[in-house]
UniProtKB/TrEMBL annotation:
It comes from Promicromonospora soli. Pathway: Cofactor biosynthesis; pyridoxal 5'-phosphate biosynthesis. L-glutamine binds at residues 47-49, 108, 141-142. Gene3D superfamilies: 3.40.50.880. In the presence of PdxS, forms a dodecamer of heterodimers. Only shows activity in the heterodimer. This is Pyridoxal 5'-phosphate synthase subunit PdxT. One of its GO terms (cellular component) is glutaminase complex. The keyword Lyase applies. It catalyses: aldehydo-D-ribose 5-phosphate + D-glyceraldehyde 3-phosphate + L-glutamine = pyridoxal 5'-phosphate + L-glutamate + phosphate + 3 H2O + H(+); L-glutamine + H2O = L-glutamate + NH4(+). Catalyzes the hydrolysis of glutamine to glutamate and ammonia as part of the biosynthesis of pyridoxal 5'-phosphate. The resulting ammonia molecule is channeled to the active site of PdxS. Its EC number is 4.3.3.6, 3.5.1.2.
Length: 209
Protein backbone atom coordinates (compact mmCIF):
# COMPACT_ATOMS: atom_id res chain seq x y z
CA UNK A 1 0.00 0.00 0.00
CA UNK A 2 1.55 3.32 -1.00
CA UNK A 3 1.80 6.00 1.67
CA UNK A 4 0.52 9.31 0.34
CA UNK A 5 1.04 12.48 2.31
CA UNK A 6 -1.20 15.53 2.28
CA UNK A 7 0.64 18.78 2.92
CA UNK A 8 -1.16 20.01 6.04
CA UNK A 9 -0.07 23.61 6.48
CA UNK A 10 -3.31 25.21 5.25
CA UNK A 11 -6.22 24.25 3.03
CA UNK A 12 -8.69 21.38 2.69
CA UNK A 13 -6.54 18.58 4.10
CA UNK A 14 -9.18 16.26 5.61
CA UNK A 15 -11.13 15.86 2.37
CA UNK A 16 -7.99 14.67 0.56
CA UNK A 17 -7.07 12.23 3.35
CA UNK A 18 -10.54 10.68 3.14
CA UNK A 19 -10.56 10.30 -0.65
CA UNK A 20 -7.01 8.89 -0.69
CA UNK A 21 -8.00 6.24 1.89
CA UNK A 22 -11.10 5.42 -0.18
CA UNK A 23 -8.92 4.57 -3.20
CA UNK A 24 -6.60 2.32 -1.22
CA UNK A 25 -3.71 4.52 -0.12
CA UNK A 26 -2.42 4.97 3.40
CA UNK A 27 -2.96 8.73 3.84
CA UNK A 28 -0.92 10.78 6.32
CA UNK A 29 -0.51 14.47 7.06
CA UNK A 30 2.82 16.15 6.29
CA UNK A 31 4.05 19.15 8.30
CA UNK A 32 7.67 18.31 9.10
CA UNK A 33 10.72 17.55 6.97
CA UNK A 34 10.96 14.01 8.39
CA UNK A 35 7.35 13.36 7.37
CA UNK A 36 7.99 14.67 3.86
CA UNK A 37 11.06 12.47 3.58
CA UNK A 38 8.93 9.38 4.35
CA UNK A 39 6.03 9.54 1.88
CA UNK A 40 5.76 7.78 -1.50
CA UNK A 41 3.65 10.62 -2.95
CA UNK A 42 2.29 13.97 -1.85
CA UNK A 43 -0.92 15.96 -2.36
CA UNK A 44 -0.76 19.77 -2.29
CA UNK A 45 -4.32 20.75 -1.36
CA UNK A 46 -6.37 23.76 -2.33
CA UNK A 47 -6.33 26.75 -0.05
CA UNK A 48 -4.42 29.97 -0.48
CA UNK A 49 -1.22 29.59 -2.47
CA UNK A 50 0.40 32.72 -1.00
CA UNK A 51 -0.13 31.39 2.55
CA UNK A 52 1.02 27.86 1.71
CA UNK A 53 4.10 29.33 -0.01
CA UNK A 54 5.04 31.30 3.12
CA UNK A 55 4.37 28.36 5.44
CA UNK A 56 6.45 26.00 3.27
CA UNK A 57 9.43 28.23 3.91
CA UNK A 58 8.68 28.76 7.63
CA UNK A 59 8.33 24.99 8.14
CA UNK A 60 11.56 24.38 6.17
CA UNK A 61 9.81 22.25 3.60
CA UNK A 62 10.30 24.40 0.49
CA UNK A 63 13.77 23.23 -0.54
CA UNK A 64 13.20 19.66 0.59
CA UNK A 65 10.05 19.48 -1.53
CA UNK A 66 11.93 20.87 -4.53
CA UNK A 67 14.64 18.27 -3.98
CA UNK A 68 12.14 15.41 -3.67
CA UNK A 69 10.38 16.57 -6.86
CA UNK A 70 13.74 16.55 -8.68
CA UNK A 71 14.23 12.96 -7.45
CA UNK A 72 10.88 12.04 -9.02
CA UNK A 73 8.43 12.15 -6.11
CA UNK A 74 4.86 11.92 -7.46
CA UNK A 75 2.96 15.06 -6.45
CA UNK A 76 -0.65 16.02 -7.12
CA UNK A 77 -1.55 19.70 -6.75
CA UNK A 78 -5.19 20.83 -6.67
CA UNK A 79 -6.08 24.50 -7.19
CA UNK A 80 -3.60 26.34 -4.92
CA UNK A 81 -1.52 23.16 -5.29
CA UNK A 82 -1.54 23.59 -9.09
CA UNK A 83 -0.18 27.12 -8.60
CA UNK A 84 2.60 25.73 -6.38
CA UNK A 85 3.64 23.17 -9.01
CA UNK A 86 3.91 25.76 -11.80
CA UNK A 87 7.35 26.95 -12.87
CA UNK A 88 5.83 30.37 -13.61
CA UNK A 89 2.69 32.19 -12.43
CA UNK A 90 0.66 35.24 -13.43
CA UNK A 91 -1.24 37.47 -10.97
CA UNK A 92 0.76 36.25 -7.97
CA UNK A 93 1.56 38.62 -5.14
CA UNK A 94 4.85 40.55 -5.33
CA UNK A 95 6.89 38.14 -3.19
CA UNK A 96 5.03 34.94 -4.07
CA UNK A 97 7.19 31.94 -5.00
CA UNK A 98 6.26 28.53 -6.27
CA UNK A 99 7.83 25.14 -5.73
CA UNK A 100 7.80 24.47 -9.45
CA UNK A 101 8.45 21.28 -11.39
CA UNK A 102 5.88 21.63 -14.16
CA UNK A 103 6.84 23.61 -17.25
CA UNK A 104 3.73 25.77 -17.38
CA UNK A 105 2.43 29.25 -16.72
CA UNK A 106 -0.54 29.28 -14.32
CA UNK A 107 -2.80 32.29 -13.85
CA UNK A 108 -4.10 32.73 -10.29
CA UNK A 109 -7.79 33.52 -9.73
CA UNK A 110 -8.23 33.21 -13.49
CA UNK A 111 -11.99 32.62 -13.42
CA UNK A 112 -12.69 35.74 -11.39
CA UNK A 113 -13.65 36.25 -7.78
CA UNK A 114 -15.08 33.91 -5.14
CA UNK A 115 -18.62 34.48 -6.52
CA UNK A 116 -17.47 33.06 -9.83
CA UNK A 117 -16.95 29.63 -8.25
CA UNK A 118 -18.83 26.84 -10.01
CA UNK A 119 -19.22 23.09 -10.52
CA UNK A 120 -19.02 21.42 -13.90
CA UNK A 121 -18.58 18.07 -15.63
CA UNK A 122 -15.30 17.60 -17.50
CA UNK A 123 -13.86 15.13 -19.95
CA UNK A 124 -10.57 14.05 -18.42
CA UNK A 125 -8.07 12.05 -20.51
CA UNK A 126 -7.30 8.71 -18.89
CA UNK A 127 -10.36 8.89 -16.60
CA UNK A 128 -13.61 9.82 -18.36
CA UNK A 129 -12.61 7.72 -21.37
CA UNK A 130 -11.66 4.60 -19.38
CA UNK A 131 -13.94 1.70 -18.39
CA UNK A 132 -17.53 2.76 -17.72
CA UNK A 133 -16.05 6.26 -17.64
CA UNK A 134 -18.14 9.35 -17.94
CA UNK A 135 -17.25 12.94 -17.18
CA UNK A 136 -15.60 13.94 -13.92
CA UNK A 137 -17.68 16.13 -11.58
CA UNK A 138 -15.52 19.05 -10.51
CA UNK A 139 -15.69 22.15 -8.32
CA UNK A 140 -13.82 25.34 -9.19
CA UNK A 141 -13.28 27.69 -6.25
CA UNK A 142 -11.39 30.88 -7.11
CA UNK A 143 -9.51 28.61 -9.40
CA UNK A 144 -6.45 29.14 -11.56
CA UNK A 145 -6.02 27.90 -15.12
CA UNK A 146 -2.98 26.90 -17.16
CA UNK A 147 -2.24 29.80 -19.46
CA UNK A 148 0.65 28.10 -21.30
CA UNK A 149 1.93 24.54 -21.19
CA UNK A 150 5.42 23.46 -22.27
CA UNK A 151 6.06 20.59 -24.67
CA UNK A 152 6.49 17.99 -21.89
CA UNK A 153 3.19 18.89 -20.24
CA UNK A 154 0.33 16.60 -21.20
CA UNK A 155 -3.05 18.35 -21.23
CA UNK A 156 -5.67 16.16 -19.52
CA UNK A 157 -8.73 18.42 -19.35
CA UNK A 158 -10.02 21.69 -20.74
CA UNK A 159 -13.08 23.81 -20.01
CA UNK A 160 -15.80 22.71 -22.46
CA UNK A 161 -17.33 25.13 -24.96
CA UNK A 162 -20.81 24.98 -23.39
CA UNK A 163 -21.98 24.35 -19.83
CA UNK A 164 -24.50 21.70 -18.74
CA UNK A 165 -27.36 24.12 -19.54
CA UNK A 166 -26.02 24.59 -23.08
CA UNK A 167 -24.82 28.15 -22.50
CA UNK A 168 -21.51 29.15 -24.05
CA UNK A 169 -18.62 29.50 -21.64
CA UNK A 170 -16.18 32.42 -21.64
CA UNK A 171 -13.29 30.24 -20.45
CA UNK A 172 -13.90 27.58 -23.14
CA UNK A 173 -10.75 25.69 -24.03
CA UNK A 174 -8.73 26.72 -20.98
CA UNK A 175 -6.48 23.96 -19.64
CA UNK A 176 -7.58 22.84 -16.18
CA UNK A 177 -5.77 19.52 -15.69
CA UNK A 178 -2.27 18.53 -16.75
CA UNK A 179 0.48 16.03 -16.10
CA UNK A 180 4.24 16.12 -16.50
CA UNK A 181 5.79 12.76 -15.61
CA UNK A 182 5.01 12.09 -11.92
CA UNK A 183 3.47 15.54 -11.41
CA UNK A 184 -0.31 15.98 -11.74
CA UNK A 185 -2.23 19.24 -11.38
CA UNK A 186 -5.90 20.19 -11.51
CA UNK A 187 -7.36 23.69 -11.27
CA UNK A 188 -10.43 22.18 -9.58
CA UNK A 189 -11.21 20.28 -6.40
CA UNK A 190 -12.22 16.68 -7.13
CA UNK A 191 -12.13 15.87 -3.39
CA UNK A 192 -15.36 17.76 -2.63
CA UNK A 193 -17.65 16.45 -5.38
CA UNK A 194 -17.50 12.78 -4.39
CA UNK A 195 -15.62 11.67 -7.53
CA UNK A 196 -12.56 9.70 -6.41
CA UNK A 197 -11.16 8.93 -9.87
CA UNK A 198 -8.55 11.72 -10.01
CA UNK A 199 -7.15 10.50 -6.68
CA UNK A 200 -7.32 6.97 -8.05
CA UNK A 201 -5.22 8.06 -11.03
CA UNK A 202 -2.72 9.73 -8.70
CA UNK A 203 -2.44 6.70 -6.40
CA UNK A 204 -1.79 4.51 -9.45
CA UNK A 205 0.98 6.96 -10.47
CA UNK A 206 2.44 6.63 -6.95
CA UNK A 207 2.21 2.85 -7.17
CA UNK A 208 4.31 3.05 -10.33
CA UNK A 209 1.65 3.27 -13.04
N1 LIG B 1 -7.21 31.51 -5.23
C1 LIG B 1 -6.41 30.61 -4.44
C2 LIG B 1 -4.93 30.92 -4.59
O1 LIG B 1 -4.55 31.80 -5.28
C3 LIG B 1 -6.64 29.17 -4.80
C4 LIG B 1 -8.04 28.78 -4.41
C5 LIG B 1 -8.19 27.33 -4.09
O2 LIG B 1 -7.22 26.62 -3.82
N2 LIG B 1 -9.42 26.89 -4.02
O3 LIG B 1 -4.12 30.27 -4.00
Amino acid sequence: TPTVGVLALQGDVREHLAVLESVGARAVTVRRPAELADVDGLVLPGGESTTIDKLLRIFELHELLQARIKEGLPVYGSCAGMILLADRILDGTADQQTVGGMDMVVRRNAFGRQVDSFETDLDFAGISDVGSGGPVRTAFIRAPWVEEAGPDVEVLARIPAVDTQGRSVAAAGRIVAARQGPLLATAFHPEITGDARVHGLFVSMVAGG
